[in-house]
Known about the structure:
This protein is α/β, with parallel strands linked by helices. It has one domain (6-211): 3-Layer(aba) Sandwich (Rossmann fold). It has 7 helices and 7 strands. The protein has a 7-stranded mixed sheet with strand order 1-3-2-4-5-6-7, with helices on both faces. Helix 4 links the parallel strand 4 (89-94) and strand 5 (116-120). Helix 1 (30-41) packs across helix 7 (193-211). The protein is globular and about 40 Å long. The model has no long low-confidence stretch (mean pLDDT 95).
Amino acid sequence: MGGRFLFDGPQGARAMILLAHGAGAPMDSVSMTAAAKALGEVGFRVARFEFDYMAARRTSTGRKPPPRAETLKDEYFAAVAELSANVPLIIGGKSMGGRVASMIADELFAENRAAGLLCIGYPFHPPSKPTQLRTKHLAGLKTPALICQGTRDVFGAREEVAGYALSDRIEFLWLEDGDHDLRPRKSVSGYSAADHLKTMAGAVSSWAEIIAR
Length: 213
């Protein structure tokens, strides 16, 4: 993983956020870059990294499909170890990246190696397959968590998520009319993507002040 981190935000930050990408887009995608910059602007040191299959796409002519999320846990553990944060660390990511982080969060939290979990657009189920839930491990989650989700996310809209059995350690920030990238239709919601990113970053900052003391 050496040299694979992308950083945003001040080096002297009081907390660090480690973000992994989603299944289909790299760590420097438009949505990942925008989220990282927004979090950096409110004072976090943000580090992004790529799983090996995604990094391989940069040098390979073929498009290697994403593996099953649970097979990527060791790569996330390795990123945490390499980052070696000396301030409170929040792990998480966009979509699948956040899902992988959620699978290892309790182990890291128990070892005081992570203070919290941040998921941006959690993939509660595949699009158009609302019964194929990816929530079983979230019912007993012990790590403080914040999930930032658009209300019309096709991977889990607000009315769907309301019926899930989830740990009381999980808090939600619902962004009105946001899609899987938190982008709203301005003509419908009156908000812009920039508005939602600013709201998201502010909410993460307030939440982190409580959980990363």
